[in-house]
Amino acid sequence: MAEAALDAMRRALRDFPVAARDLSVPFTVPYLDEPPTPLCFYRDWVCPNRPCIIRNALKHWPALQKWSFSYLRATVGSTEVTVAVTPDGYADAVRGDRFVMPAERRLPLSCVLDVLEGQTQHPGVLYMQKQCSSLLTELPQLLSDVESHIPWASEALGKMPDALNFWLGEAAAVTSLHKDHYENLYCVVSGEKHFLLHPPSDRPFIPYELYTPATYQLTEEGTFKVVDEEAMEKVPWIPLDPLTPDLARYPSYSQVQALRCTVRAGELLYLPALWFHHVQQSHGCIAVNFWYDMEYDLKYSYFQLVDSLTKAAGLY
Ligand SMILES: O=C(O)CCC(=O)C(=O)O
Q1: Cα dist. 134→14, 46, 173 in Å?
Q2: Distance between CA atoms of 316 and 313, rounded to whole angstroms?
Q3: pLDDT tens digits, residue range 14-37?
Q4: Residue 266 — φ and ψ, nearest 5°?
Q5: Does 276 sit in the ligand 1 pocket, CB within 6 Å?
Q6: Is the Cβ atom of 180 under 6 angstroms away from ligand 1?
Q7: Where would I find the JmjC domain in this sequence (predicted)?
């Protein structure tokens, strides 16, 4: 491609996040004081792909009153659950020149609670973060304390959730910046979650690179080894940590402005599909989220186009 045309394409891609932000991205995540009707949810939030935090949407869930550590011990303490273990709290993240996945251990939930309460030591940082509908597959006894879907969201989206996940971990457990093709209804039951968000239109400023996948292995001595997953294809992932961005290496990231929000106990974050998110939490925070598969509509195709052009223009 002629250099002038390539320059024009890069300029257009760099202007795009700013134009999209001016038109449709809020400076902060707005709050609703009650759950919306399905029509309002679809019209005001899903269709324009805008996040919001909804209060009083979970107040009928027994979990809000019941889910203390002592209740979890008494009801599901002996149930074995899958726990991600990492040396530094980062599971599924770029470490050096690898995309590193966590070591996984099966532990009775009471052991996880012992560690969270400081009664037992365990090497590394623990996070129950398995995303395979973990509430249904690992802790089905707790389902009657929540709901199997969010009725107004299911009606708006015309489908039931693909997954219902349970999250519980240490304050040091961090979810690295990424995006999903799900409409995400993220419900905090106790504690707080801290989200750092970017709209999908920020893609031209968000770097991706291809990494050799690897997995942490926890040795008998309690140290960690990084073992390559030789049979797996390379993984495209975001190398940048938005908390300490390496702006010398990724200078265009200085042009984006993240939205930050805290979701507190009893609140529900609607996180629209394709929004980039980085997540931290208070120690022992308990959350449940519903992933509804997104519509693969024209919005999705436009995102794919921006993604392809960003790569083709050599931006990231
Ligand atoms: O809560 C977290 O740590 C991560 C949540 C997340 O990434 C998601 O729901 O897609």
Answers
A1: 39, 25, 18
A2: 8
A3: 999 999 999 999 999 999 999 999
A4: 90, -5
A5: no
A6: yes
A7: 128-307
